[in-house]
Amino acid sequence: MSLGDHLEELRQRLIYSILVVSAFMVGTLYFGSEIHTFLIQPYKSVLGPDAHFFQIQLMAPFLIYLKTSFILSVLVSLPFLLYILWGFIAPAVDPRTEKWGKFIILFSTLLFWSGLALCWFTVFENFLRVFLVVLRPDGVDPYLPIDEYYDLFFNLHLVFGASFQLPIVLILLGRIGFLSSRFLISRWREAVLIIAVVSAVLSPGPDVFSMLMLLVPLSFLFFLSAIIMKVLETTDRK
């Protein structure tokens, strides 16, 4: 296949990806009001059912609808997008690597969504409570501008989703020979210390709870990665 053919196939796959995201955006825009009501639940849980937002910028609500629709559409269509991309790469790899590639796509997607779920169910509301209630001095209005709330919402959730890609990174480094399971296990104390520092930096609040919510699952994923790498190394030797 010539370079022109490769570029043409890449163009077609990009078009397919855009169509997939656009299809989901139609649905998320149609249910935009319901999605907004759902996403602000942590805010109202902290400040009460009568809590409201401020509109600072004229187009903020409209832009938030578009941004929310786009991000949610990408997240929901993530496995489809990765599969489309893998279809472009797969012909250049051997059958065994192709099989593992499909597994990595599924594993990566599940890990990312697990990070989002952890942030939603245990971290984000606690983060809001710390800064809007616990650390708020008297005489200060706790209510947020609507665009600031959504920026915080997506930034924190994406941090957790991206952090949960740790096993994918470690396993891929192991498959190319840069790391080994023996090295990871022998350096587990240093690894946990590094994870603790990263968790302290990335955790949304100054409290220990927020840090532990990132430290504990990332430490578990580190040891899980070492076990998976050990299994793969044993399989390769057979």
From TrEMBL:
The gene is tatC. This is Sec-independent protein translocase protein TatC. Pfam families: TatC. It is a multi-pass membrane protein. Part of the twin-arginine translocation (Tat) system that transports large folded proteins containing a characteristic twin-arginine motif in their signal peptide across membranes. The keyword Transmembrane applies. The chain crosses the membrane at residues 14-33, 70-91, 103-123, 152-176, 188-205, 211-232. Forms a complex with TatA. It comes from the Bacteria. Its main location: membrane. Belongs to the TatC family. InterPro entries: Sec-indep_translocase_CS, TatC. It is found in: Cell membrane; Membrane. Keywords: Cell membrane, Membrane, Protein transport, Translocation, Transmembrane, Transmembrane helix, Transport.
